[in-house]
Write a structure and sequence with these properties.
- One of its GO terms (biological process) is DNA protection.
- It is found in: Nucleus.
- Keywords: Hydrolase, Magnesium, Metal-binding, Nucleus.
- By secondary structure, the protein is mainly beta.
- Helices cover 13% and strands 38% of the residues.
- Strands 1, 2, 3, 4, 5, 6, 7 and 8 form an 8-stranded mixed beta sheet that branches.
- It starts with 10 loop residues before the first strand and ends in a 10-residue tail after the last strand.
- The chain binds the ligand Nc1[nH]c(=O)nc2c1ncn2[C@H]1C[C@H](O)[C@@H](COP(=O)(O)OP(=O)(O)OP(=O)(O)O)O1.
Length: 173
């Protein structure tokens, strides 16, 4: 039956996020402007109209770090869902890793890149949720995580699931 309860109508915004690995550790970028300014994170952004999730992830990495990863070297590991008590917007962030890449690392207008040893990842200077799920990704496991946020900072609820490679979550399934 049609419902007049509009509280459950959500608008979904899809993002990508990639963690590039090498012998040096993991590549993070210091966000210089916009959403998440002043925080370290992987590279990524909104998926644009007309592009696939994979294309969006590759484009954002190129724009923000100048690195190129071929599509066959992009490893999809799962997604994180952010719901908010005070907004109908739900963010889906598709997470990738890659350890084969080409081109030289360059600072962009948006991100200042830096390699971190795994033991020296600055979780306290990242989004508050990263410490719950990024270690799983860096152990080469699949990830499904969901967070209920209040405002930009407060975490009301969390659910973090490590997944096997044969059980990587796909949004919408
Ligand atoms: N709570 C959170 N924890 C986390 O680890 N990553 C988050 C996060 N919330 C957002 N992200 C990621 C997703 C995405 O990679 C990035 C935000 O992307 P941006 O807003 O910078 O997108 P765009 O580069 O498309 O921005 P504009 O071009 O300025 O619209 O931060």
């Amino acid at each position: 039956m049609p419902s007049s309860d509009n509280n459950n109508i959500k608008s979904i915004v899809e993002f990508t996020l990639i963690f590039v690995r090498s012998d040096e550790g993991v590549l993070l970028g210091f966000k210089k402007r916009g959403f998440g300014v002043g925080k370290w994170n992987g590279f990524g952004g909104k998926i644009e109209k007309g592009e696939t999730i994979l294309q969006g992830a590759m484009r954002e990495l190129k724009e923000e770090s100048n690195l190129t990863v071929s599509s066959s070297n992009m490893i999809y590991v799962g997604y994180v869902r952010y719901d908010r008590v005070d907004s109908p917007q739900v963010d889906i962030v598709y997470i990738f890793t890659a350890s084969e890449f080409s081109d030289s690392l360059e600072e962009s207008e948006e991100m200042a890149p830096k390699w971190f040893k795994i033991s020296e990842i600055p979780y306290e200077e990242m989004w508050g949720d990263s410490k719950y799920w990024l270690p799983i990704v860096l152990r080469k496991k699949g990830i499904f995580a969901e967070f209920l946020l209040s405002g930009e900072r407060n975490m009301v609820k969390k659910n973090v699931e490590e997944r096997d490679e044969n059980n990587i979550p796909v949004y919408g399934e």
